[in-house]
Amino acid sequence: MPNAQAPDLILHRGLITTLDRANPNASAVAITAGKFTAVGRDEEIMPLAGPETRIVDLKGKRVLPGLIDNHLHIIRGGLNFNMELRWDGVRSLAVAMDMLKRQVAVTPPPQWVRVVGGFTEHQFVEKRLPSIEELNAVAPDTPVFLLHLYDRALLNAAALRAVGYDKNTPAPPGGEITRDANGNPTGLLLAKPNAGILYATLAKGPKLPFDYQLNSTRHFMRELNRLGVTGAIDAGGGFQNYPDDYAVIQQLADEGQLTIRLAYNLFTQKPKGEKDDFLNWTRTSQYKQGTDYFRHNGAGEMLVFSAADFEDFRQPRPDMAPEMEGELDEVVRVLAQNRWPWRMHATYDETISRALDVFERVNQDVPLEGLNWFFDHAETISDQSIDRIAALGGGIAVQHRMAYQGEYFVERYGPGAAEATPPVARMLEKGVKVSAGTDATRVASYNPWVSLAWLITGRTVGGLRITPQRNCLDRETALRMWTENVTWFSNEEGKKGRIEVGQFADLVVPDRDFFACAEGDIADTSALLTLVGGKVVWGAGDFVSLDDNPVPPAMPDWSPVRSFGGYAGWGEQPQANLQQKAASSCGCAHSCSVHGHDHATAWSAKLPISDLKGFWGALGCACWAV
Prior knowledge:
By secondary structure, the protein is an alpha/beta fold. The chain contains 22 helices and 23 strands. Strand 9 (113-116), helix 4 and strand 10 (144-148) form a beta-alpha-beta unit. The chain is globular, with a radius of gyration of 24 Å. The chain starts with 8 loop residues before the first strand and ends in an 8-residue tail after the last helix.
């Protein structure tokens, strides 16, 4: 090959899983102008190098196509990432509370400390949330807002003062402000089942200025790159206004600073104004407008507010309003006539079946063939609804919300009902288009490996096995759900999702062999090397010197990201340091005769036990009682 055509980059001596069925395994790839130009054996690829070709020795590491999240609130998440203390992946409440205490100490007034989703009380060995009294003890003067899934929020006394909630504050429709005997708010807000009270209260907090939001979004993308994510579909979101809240991501796209390929859907803004929103947007926006890094992907996930059910399994299933079909029909006709695909949030089959009645009726007048429309979530979808979706040419985008809420689902509906919730294996068996994602950042973590672990093991992050083996996926199928399968949902089939000649050079080298590591280790995976368009956007370990993605320090200087990083507080590794600090600052009244106040170490010890409390109690240890 003449030097003028030589590759920009060659990776060799790897175990490359391509997902190309015609060429499933390789040891080397060549990349030119952001695309794979050769995939094969070292002896085939290495002679292609020219004098300017950068050559990277993979040292026998496994290589996978870059991961693509089918449902990520990346635009909203990016605007707020630098303000949020992440408890995602933290295994002990003692450690989490120590992180909170330390963040309170550096957060200046009038700023809040926010723990906004991505975790569940079941991931903690203590199996509980902090009490409001505990929040007040660590933060007497700094507002603390803690969002748990979409079922509740905890506010300390300072946060109640900041938002102005008192005995005269009325309860919103579908929500509850819990009160004491005197009628004063306690600090506990409940979705019953509408999460509007949680959204609205969080929206009262201070916002970052524009330049800080640019920095915050870059840090969120880098955190995703650290976990091997190279692409995502943004599902819009509540209190995410178009076009105002898209100015940050648009500027980053214009300046060539995106390190995640992003397709975005437009989420309707206000009840009863949905048709007007989409009439306006179909006039002023064009489907697919943009670039391979930032492009328009149609409508949703909210199409009409009357069709939005809620995923709070602590509450009974909500029945959609009788006007749902009429309002949904108006919007879907606008979208179909303008050839805009859509995505629709739907948790329960009762909602899905009613929506399908509308889609089938519209299809008789405006054929839906060729529109890549789909349902999101679909936890309790029936076989009949899956067949109806397939017949209409639609798809189903599943997310790992059950990994965070499985215990609540089992408590309400029983373990039998949870065995195929959602029925992913059945969807694949029936041939419907199906892919995977997270629904991060609030209802679940953005960590893709947690989702992959859930698909493969059927376990929640709290360790409960809810999906029997027959309904779980093998590792290759799960990986395809996170790569090539997602591309149908953004109408980018053949462009990405595999390591194949002509596709975008997006790949990840994980820190362990995805196909050989223990199932229990999958969720703890991160990336050693991540490439997007042939550019190194994350490098660690042996590849740290290759990192071409310098990001300025997180802004403001008190940002939790500076101290803790993101998932599992990785910025403070090793975790043992956090546990030691939690022990030294514990100060609780339950000193253990065996471990003193070092409860976190006791709880996180890797021992073959099924009953934590019983085990420690049998040893005369009192850590179980804390």
